[in-house]
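worker-03 picked up job from queue 'complexes'. Input manifest follows; two sequence lines, order preserved.
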Amino acid sequence: QSALTQPASVSGSPGQSITISCTGTSSDVGGYNYVSWYQQHPGKAPKLMIYDVSNRPSGVSNRFSGSKSGNTASLTISGLQAEDEADYYCSSYTSSSTPYVFGTGTKVTVL
Amino acid sequence: QVQLVQSGAEVKKPGASVKVSCKASGYTFTSYGISWVRQAPGQGLEWMGWISAYNGNTNYAQKLQGRVTMTTDTSTSTAYMELRSLRSDDTAVYYCARYYYDSSGFIEYYFDYWGQGTLVTVSS
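worker-03 finished. Artifact:
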């Protein structure tokens, strides 16, 4: 099972919106609504930001939103803030022999 | 509050085994499962496998089959991950993370709480 494909880096200015893509196949992203997104600051454990494609856990800012179209999921961060600078990983359930997979990760830089 | 507290850093020689623990508190241990995720230095997240604390059912990443064993001790609300025949490319931070798995077999495929991570260094 190969990792889901994400852009290596995305950047934006404070207040802007950015979108991170996560491309898989019909065996993972496209086949199930089990896409989640995690934020990871350097030296810290990942933090759940979005689950089941578009749901936000309690306490996560509504500036974070998720969506999916076909085999590609997306995470949008609106009103970009300095604290959003981090690595972001998507993940999905898969129907393969390895039933869970993470994306390659995207480094978000706030200019 | 939900907490997952992992054991401390380990240094192992190639070919040895390591066993990392993850002690849970603040929730009903057997209503959830524990997954293990690792991250090599400067690299991304890699899913290793998971175990239901309700019935002990496990599922491991294919690349680790035969080298990894995940267990739980419900009397102490602790999960364990043992990795054998260690190689240099097993050097990583190992995380435990919680996912919902109830007695009916219903599973939520996301990880809402994570441990602080355990650095395992494999070096001769």
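worker-03 released lock.
The mean pLDDT of chain B is 96.
Chain B touches chain A through 22 residues (CB under 8 Å).
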